[in-house]
Amino acid sequence: MTTEHQEQRESLWILTAAPAIWLSHFLLSYITGAIWCAKFAGSDGSLGAVRVAMAVYTSVALGGLALIGWRGRRRTSASPRGEAGASDRFLGHASLLLSGLAAVAILYASLVAVFIRSCR
Amino acid sequence: MTGASPGDEQHAQAERLLQVWKIPTGWRYWSAVNNEAVGLWYIATSFFFFLFAGVLALLMRTQLAVPENELLSADLYGQTFTVHGSVMMFLFAIPMFEAIAVLLLPQMLGARDLPFPRLSAFGFWCFVLGGIFLCGSIFFDAAPRGGWFMYPPLTSGYQPGIGADIWLLGFSFIEVAAIAGAVEIVVGVLKCRPPGMRIHLMPLYAWYALVASAMVLFAFPPLIVGSLLLEVERAFGWPFFDPAGGGDPLLWQHLFWLFGHPEVYVIFLPSVALVAMIVPTFARRPILGYGWIVLSAIGTGFLSFGLWVHHMYTTGLPGISLGLFSAASTAVAIPTGVQFFCFLATLLMGRVTRSTPMLFVFGSLAIFVLGGLTGVMVALAPFDFQAHDTFFVVAHLHYALIGGAVFPIIAGFYYYFPLVSGKMLSDRLGKLAFWLMFIGFNVGFLPMHFTGLRGMPRRVYTYPAGLGFDGLNLVSTIGTFILGAGVAVLVWDLVRPRSRQPPAPRDPWSAGTLEWVQEMPGKPWGIRSIPQVDSRYPLWDQPNLVHDIDAGRFYLPDAEEGLRETLVTSAVDARPVLCQRLPGSSFLALAAALTTGGFFIFGTFHWWRPAVASLGAALAVILFWLWTGTARRPEKDEKDVGSGLKLPLYASGPASIGWWGMFITMLADLTAFVSLVFGYFFFWTIHDEFPPTPNPGPGVFWPGAAAAALLTSWGATVLARRWNRRDRAFGCHAALLGGAGVATAGGAALIAGPVVTGLDPASHAYPATVWLLVLWTATHVAIGVVMQLYCCARRLVGHMTAQHDADIHNVVLYWHFTILTVVITVAVIAGFPLLA
């Protein structure tokens, strides 16, 4: 019973993994930019280092999402057909979709670093 | 026992169930905790607050109908728009969501009730008390007047009356109730589904309610902390938001909108959930894109936490911050759009039958799409610079909230009314109400876009003639009165006498979801027997389901022991794991609400002695409630719940619902604490030197000593759990008592830090923040000590044993969170100054 319980908890948490990656990327980007401009570069300073940091955050985040999406897809296809594997297939499908949405939102956010070059 | 029951045994079972679930009569009616009773009170009260705030809106529109009008003074107008906005948000939209969930979720999930019925009742009574307190203030010219988002310094330095205190304390009280409701809903959705209703078969309403409740847990705590800071500044002069003392009003804006923007989606998601239940019924087919809608709900829930700065575009933040929030604000349109396309696709693929609920659904879709589109416009910073604080924003938010919440809720009223009263609402009056509301709303609010673009600011009590605002404002006023007439028709339809009206047929809309198995009129037991569910639309897909439920052929068809019970199932696959005993009617929830409310209400008037006495009484009532009503040892280990299935009657740790309740509550608590820590680092970013030099304290010694003592106490509590499980009574008692002693010393050492180093909280934002972190943590330690002593007492009288150890499991979980709070506090107040 205990291991069953453990499995179940993990499998529901998987739904929060992709959005959590988006949230981490978002908050890290925001905090890095805010601290850089407030404490180091000044209100007219260059964003240089922040843009590099955001590129790194974005690559890592997209890598993580690719992994979650791939696992979700595999879970969908590998689960037994019929009712037995239905909830597994659903969770795999939902986590794949969520990693897609998170990836789009992360690309939106990373575009900011492409176009904005200073702290103004 | 069940399948072969002769008729008279079935009858006897039904009688026993009825007796157990009976709603008390006479004055004891108000001690009821059944979801049917509490849910109905909750809906009626929040709808009453909606009407009250609506009347205030009509007053405002009358004032603005013509230029230079003198119907309302500037001051009274300030109170009117503040109370209107605050009541609509805090006393209508959020409570209405929780009210509908409390009433309907058990029906949708085939549960007898939600897992913590008394907590629902407590939440309701807190809400009523706080709501009356806030609404009543306007009749004494004492209402808040700072707008529903209460920006300091307007609300700190310039408004000396008690209006702002009423807002801050009254709503903090109501937010506590909202969090209690959210805990109830999360645990209910995850653990109280009928056997077989696996995660992919859950009604969409349950998904949305789960997401919205989870959002409440993370969105409300920042506002509670913000309110705490602002109230402490107003009452004791700790300068969190006063630049003269090193504070910053922008901190309030961050904390408020960290709550405020997700809140919009907390309102929107459960309302659109009603649409997701109504659409398949009238399209006569299952919903299309179930997985996509779940994706949308979860995705929107997360993305909504990345939008808060879009309310602060004009505060001078760096472009990169604006850009990031603009990106998230436009991205959230994607999941929002996805669910709407799923609804439209379902309607296109089905055979739509006409009905009043569908009329309101169509109205909602049309209005919300417009509100969403203007939302994308104001998400773009350059446009927002122009439209900020104008009537354009007023138009946008009303399109979003009336389209996204009010219309779906009214659709829900028409759809679900038979479940509540056993009778239908009038189709004719419904259509009349709809057209009056739909036309009135658009006539009223569409022109406001143009009033705003022409430059009329929001929240002005009047305007000079000839600026191009006159005609538009008059049209808006006419429109809102037509809208008001529509609401009046709805109210009449809801309250008109129905004694001659025949009862509604069972499942009057031929819907497929489980709530419609209810008999007309409904019985207080919720459902006659808890079925095995194999489909998203069991009434469409499972033949004989209603008959078998009525015949008591499924689970828990009886109440042999005369106790209220429901099934607890596993979170993903809904396998039955526990037969949960539920508490019956009691005035304890009301008493707890009155005493807790006393603390907040006396505090508003700065009557500290009665406030503290009330808090003490609240603690006593809550302890009595816990002692007599929770973790009770059953008379036997397991029971036959029907169909030959035997389930345990007691569980502890993660297998019990109480543990999950504690876990979820502590997540909210931790979020509040993180908001406080955010305040500390926010001050660090705006000051050249933070902590100010020379370093004023609290030093390393006292916080370090506190951390050592509290880590010891935490370890002792964990050991107590282990020794209790091994039935080593002496070790368990010694660990708990020793842990309580060491924790008391640790809490004192924590407070000693700022005392010994002479930190004066009224002198600067730094000592104020340190003091608040210390007091927050020390309060948690004090509660932890009470819990340790409570477990000791439970063990002593035999309520807690080696096998029945739910109490100590929950207390250990509380201590895990508390020790995390301690470690972070000490790292911040003692460690960070060494680095900075």
Structural account:
The complex is a heterodimer of chains A (120) and B (836). Chain A has helices at 2-41, 48-78, 86-115. Residues 1-10 of chain A have low confidence and may be disordered. In chain A, α1 (2-41) packs antiparallel against α2 (48-78), α1 (2-41) packs parallel to α3 (86-115) and α2 packs antiparallel against α3 (86-115). Chain A has one domain. Chain A is rod-shaped. Chain A has 120 residues and is mainly α. Chain B is mainly alpha-helical. Chain B has helices at residues 7-21, 35-64, 74-108, 117-136, 154-157, 163-191, 204-236, 249-283, 290-303, 319-331, 333-349, 356-379, 381-387, 391-421, 427-453, 470-495, 538-541, 545-550, 588-604, 608-629, 657-686, 701-725, 729-756, 765-797, 806-835, and strands at 564-569, 576-582, 638-640, 646-648. In chain B, α2 (35-64) runs antiparallel to α3 (74-108), α2 (35-64) packs antiparallel against α16 (470-495) and α3 (74-108) runs parallel beside α6 (163-191). Classes of the chains: A mainly alpha (120), B mainly alpha (836). The interface between A and B is large, with 49 and 41 residues.
